[in-house]
Every structure is written in structure tokens, then in C-alpha cells.
Amino acid sequence: MKNTTLGYLLTAASCIILLSGCGASNEKTGETNQKSAKNEQTFSVVAKQEIPSIDASVTNDVVGWGVLKNTGEGLFRSDKKGKLIPAGAAEMPKISEDGLTYTFKLREDAVWSNGDPVVAQDYVYGWQRTVEPKTASEVSYLFEPIKNYQAIMDGKIPAKELEVKALGDHELEVTLESPVPYMESLLSLPPFFPQNEKTISENGEKYASSSDHMVYNGPFVLSEFDGAGTDTKWAYLKNEKYWDQDNVTMAKINFDVVKEDATALNLFQDGQTDDIVVTGELAQQMVDDPAFFSQDMSNATYVEYNQAKKEFQNEHLRKAISYALDRQTLVDQVLGDGSIAATGLVPKNMSFNPETEADFVKDSGNHLKYDPEKAKEYWAKAKTELGIDSLKINLLSSDADSAKKVVEYMQGAIQGTLKGVTVEVSSVPLSVRLERGNKGDFDMILVGWGAEYNDPSVFLELFASDNINNSGKYTNKEFDQYLKASATTNASDPKARWNDLIEAEDVLMNTMGVCPVYQKAEAHLRNPKVKGIVPSGPEYDYKWTSIEK
Description:
One of its GO terms (molecular function) is peptide transmembrane transporter activity. The chain is an alpha+beta fold. The chain is built from 16 helices and 21 strands. 53% of the residues are buried.
């Protein structure tokens, strides 16, 4: 899920930590539209970006996934300690001996915020809507393990043939093409949430355009949201129809979009907000403040080259740019928030060798080194092959403070190393960056992706030739073959599958099909009274949040 694009998400258990807040001295109280109770509280958060979309079938960014995760609910969610537990499901599924058929008993007390019961057909409808080619979903690839998905994508059969069946109002059956070790984690993601067909039909094109044109089955309902991509304020209100409402302590969570770190810091120090993200100099200045903490995320930030353009089809040019980047200086001096210099695409502390328990990053090795002399050598080769003496590149990013700092650093590093290369930076609102990325309207684009499940494939599959999120149009037959083997031939052989994924990253990095930059961390200043926010990828599950009295 893209986060500067995005999306989000279930991260590895080793990276999911119950966070105790440390922060500002002011406790927010405020008024809410919900009935008051002694354990119901209000919390205020600074967001970095507007919400591009809240439609579970199309949303593909971290902000939208965060909204969906808190206002919706699928078969599973993570508990306070990051353990996967039944949510919309009443219990863990029955799985056939061959690992292909999952049967779920659904919770009978789950209802939508409009009072409709949540039934198995809501899952069937939502999933089939997402894989319907007319929906043009960027997250439909997540349904690839389900039987008939590929035939639907190829136009051979209709979306209603996706193998998910309602065996009754509260019984759901899912059939896979081949066993998937992380299937239950996958089913906890927003694209697998149920969808209310009546609401979608009644609202038509207005569906998900604002908080009033949605219906919710999660711990909160969205409020005060007036327009995707434009509204800078919204709120979560406690959902009084949620089946587990007794364990939701927050009555209201307010969000304000503030893109400048200095402005956000002023709001925090004035007691006007309870949680902000800080980067760069501010993060370095506040590192000893008792309000400060930094949390590693299973999130890769990378640059995609637009390989539909002749220049970026040149492997030597792609390598020249990568060797020109001093990633350690970037994370230490520019970001300063605890982020880690990338050594490959897959982040650290997320996935581990099934036999030795070694980190994927250790087994894969360091593919990314700073070497300005090699950068110049590759640039010289690229110029000869392309028949050019100079090159002008546009580097696209979102307009969040951290993203702007990263691309400005890259601009200086590339121009300072590769004589004749000019880099222009375009920092635009997230919704615009997403749109331009989808259209291929860029030369190079800064992208973030958060782990949807704790497996290397969550990152590697993004660069399969036919993956809709492969905005740069990288294509390599050997890479595709390793990925396919990991999902089919070797899907039930953990050792062979692991080796397939190691080889796939090796091919991707040796051809510099994508340019990884850093593994994101988030540095926060947080009200010390706030407890229990669980990171799940790059966004949070506020169901478990409370404020100490």
C-alpha cells in the first residue's frame, strides 16, 4: 500500500509494539456528538496528508487505509499486542487438509452503522466488486491467491466467479488456487472488508465522496469529511452500533492536516494537539525531550524510474543515480527520525528465514552502496549508449515536509555527482502525486510502501511485469519467474520459496529496476497520557487507544 502513495496494513509481529505515549503536558477533553461516559475521551492528531479516497475497493494509500482500518473491519484485526485475532469472524477458520478451502463462521452481532446486519454476502459483494475490471482497482492484485482471480483479470470469466461464497448469512467459504502461508493476515486488510451493496447502490457516484455517503462497521464512524483529496479536517466518532463498543474508550479523534513540521510543533507545544510526527532538524532537536519516541516501520521508501521512457530503460543510468546517493547521510542528517538506510527493497526486522531465522536482509546482502566514482563511470556509459551529453530529470514527490527534504537531498546528490544531469523537483499534494504516478506522468517518483503482511513478497510483487502498482513499468522475465515459482511451484516448500524470493530481489537490485532509499521510521511527540496506539504498518489502530486520567 503506497504511503507517499502509501498503504495500511499488517506488519511483522516483531515490529508491532504496544506504544506508551510520552509527550506534551496538556490533556485534550473537548466536546463530542456521542453520549458521554466516564471512560470516553477525545484525542487530537496532526495528519501529514489529505485523504485521497475512502472506498475500500480503490483506496491505495496510507491515509485512506488508516481511515478504513478504524471505521471498518474485516475477518481479522490485530489486538493490543499485535496478535491477529478474529473480528468480523466469530472464530478462527476451518481449513481443508490441502490448505485450499477456508470456512468462516461470522459474528452474528455485527451490524453496519445504518443498522443493517453484516452478512456473508457483504464480503462476497465487496470482494467481487474489487476484482471487477471496470472498478480498475489498484489493490485487486491482493486477491490473486483466490481461485479464478487470474481468469477474471484476463477477461475470460465475470467477477462473480471469484471463489468466495456465502453458505448462509453467517458462513463464508473461500477457495484458493494454491496454499498461502499468510492468508489470514491478508484477510485483515481493508480491501477484504465487507461492503454494503445497498449503500453503494443508493449513493451511486457520490459513494465514498464524503463521510455522509458511507456506512461503517468498525469501532468508529467517519465524520466532518467533505471531500477526498481536499478536506484538511475530519474526525472519528465512536460507533455506538459496533459489536465491541464497550472496549472502545475514545469518543472522538480529531484530525488536522498540517504539512509543515514547525507549525505542527507549535500546535503540540501549545497543547492544541496530542500527537505529531517530526523529521529532520526538529526531530534531532527534540530527541531528548520526554515527549519524543521513534518507531521503526515495515516500510520501504524508494524511487521508481519511468521505464516507458527511453532514458530510464538504460540500466547504466539507473545504476549511476543509485550510486550517487549517500543513504546513510540522508537518514542521519536529513531525516533524523530513526529511519534506516536501505540495503535492498525488503525492510529489516520483518521476515525471517524459515530454517535459520536469519533476517531476509542478512540473507540477501547489501545491494546498495554509495560510490560516486562508480556513479560517474555508469553515467559515462549511459551517455555513450543514449547518445547524449546532458539530461534533465523531473523528480516527483508528495508535498509533505519529509518527502520534500528527501527529494531536495537527492537533487543535490545527483547533480553534484553526475555532471550534465539537471534534476527538477515537483512536490505536489498526495492525491495529485498518486494520480500522476498512476498515469505514468513522471520521470522519477518517490514512493513509500508499507507491509500488508510479514512476507518479502509484499514488496517484491510490486515489480512483477503485470502488477498494477508497477508505475515505472519495470519488466524482467527472470524476476517474474522467481516470483511465480514462490507463489506456485514452491508455495508449500518454505526453504525453496525463501530462496526464490532471495533470487528475485537479487535480480531486481542487479538491474536496479527500482532504487530503494530508506526504511521509514516515524518520530513522534505524543501526549504522555495517551496509551495503547498500536502501529500496524504506517498507520494506527485507534480502537486500543486511551488517555490516562
